[in-house]
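Page 47, continued from p. 46.
Same chain as before, 348 aa.
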Amino acid sequence: MANKIWVCIDQFKGEALVTSWEAVGTGRKLADEVGAGLTALVFGEGVENIANTAIHYGADEVLLADDPTLADFRPEPYAALLAKLAEDGSPDVILFPTTTRGRELAGMASVDLNTGVLPDVIELDVQGDKVTAIRPVYAGKLLARTECSSKPQLVTLRVRAFGMPELNESRTGTVTKVDALMAEDEIVTKVVEYATVGAGVSLTDASIIVSGGRGTSNRPQLIPPDEITDEKEQEIWRAQQGFKLIGELASLLGAAVGASRAAVDANYIPYSAQVGQTGKVVAPDLYIACGISGAIQHQAGMRTSKVIVAINKDPDAPIFKLARYGVVGDLHDIVPALTEALEDRLSY
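Result:
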């Protein structure tokens, strides 16, 4: 049985991202549907444990490239190796998680393989010898069924859209070691250092997200300290008080803190927290939007959340059309009350 379905594992510092296992689970189901085997690709340094875990999650075979030149993700050596392996192995489909690294690798490999990429897919279907993909278009307002006319078909899977597979530690498979393709002096990109932009729960992995928008600053009763005299700085200070309330609720729920583009553009919160078309695309089990009007660009990043709760003073805010539950009111009043009620409930 040929292994015609491949999955690229995204890892950082020897730790595979959860979304990689979602991709393996999806690949397993797809391979079973088409009667094929599943191969996982693991590139890095000191990542043999990831190869074994990939088998436990459903891979039949792992192509393992363990080399110092692959310790940090760099597109040139990763894409070159992926393209060479694909040319030799002739897979029909290669799946990637829709992460920053996954998207870049899929894009570069598609050029080397002279094929296309189906990005940010939320559902896969087999029709004949073709795998068709369903993905959001027009800022998430419509779903399009698409396919790639060439092979291999490269597909990036939206994070949390497919669910986690079961881990079976008794499952066995084959680990085949492969050599890196490029020497260090052939690689143009160099990794100098890593900078931590934030702490806490990752937005893309979070099952619960509490987000704030421009409404975080709309509380004139809040009087900034005397030393803050600039109007813009006063606005930012008020917003920070709003995001403090959001952070307290998020902490209680074990959630990540997100933000709309309006909040980011106004310097209320760093860009790393932005959810939306030009930020992160998320699909948590619960999304709580506080003081977010719900522009279509924001909806594009969170509309696939399983349950959406909206808190906004404006009863006509577009976010209410998307929300399952809506509360009309000032977030500065509603969020503390919600936090207190949840604290009481969780203390039982």
